[in-house]
Amino acid sequence: MLLRSDLPYLTGACVLDEAHKPLYCSEQLPQHALDGLDAAIKLSPSGSHVWQARQESYVSGFRELFLPSQFDAPAWTVVMSLPEMHALAPARALGQLVLPVGLLGLLVAALLSLVQVRRTMGPLGELTAATKPIAARDFESRVPALRDDEFGELAREPDQLLFVVRAKILA
């Protein structure tokens, strides 16, 4: 026999016969809960039902034990019930955790994006400042290519162009 102490905290268990009447319950279910379970079981051999008792909502999950094939006996339905607040507590805790973690993730992504944009815009600003004398027709100035990446390659291009322009001017 299943004792109340064998069940998880705040959980009640019932076994219902083929007419959905209690064969055994660790704690007696109110009649309106049994009526609601009867209606739900008639719709599906497994599922859940929410009911009220003592100004508290309860959630009952049920599943049919198909006994005819093994024991030549009518099917029973096992029902486990617990307070809705207790049943949904893990989901609520997860919900309270997801928003702050999501916001923290967005903040970190924004900060990393800002750092990356600054790392990209810094060399572009230097390159822009170095090409201003060329725009003012100072063809003797040079654009320093201090980097060995795309920005360094971009900085070398005006120097090659200046070499061609100087050759045309001096010729």
Summarize the structure in words:
The structure is a single chain. The radius of gyration is 38 Å and the shape is rod-shaped. The model has no long low-confidence stretch (mean pLDDT 85). A hairpin with a 5-residue loop joins strand 1 and strand 2. It has four helices and five strands. Helix 3 runs parallel beside helix 4. It has a five-stranded antiparallel beta sheet with strand order 2-1-5-4-3. With 171 residues, the chain is an alpha+beta fold.
Helix segment count? 4
User: Into which percent range does the helicity of residues fall?
Assistant: 40-55%
- Distance linking N and C termini: 108 Å
**How do the strands line up in the largest sheet?**
2-1-5-4-3
By DSSP, the count of extended strands is 5
Overview in brief:
This protein is α+β, with helices and mostly antiparallel strands and 171 residues long. It has helices spanning 31-43, 68-71, 84-135, 150-170; strands at 12-16, 22-25, 46-53, 56-65, 76-83.
Please describe the topology of this protein.
Elements lengths: L11 E5 L5 E4 L5 H13 L2 E8 L2 E10 L2 H4 L4 E8 H52 L14 H21 L1
Antiparallel strand pairs: 1-2, 1-5, 3-4, 4-5
Key terms for this structure?
single chain, 171 residues, alpha+beta, five-stranded antiparallel beta sheet, 4 helices, 5 strands, 53% helix
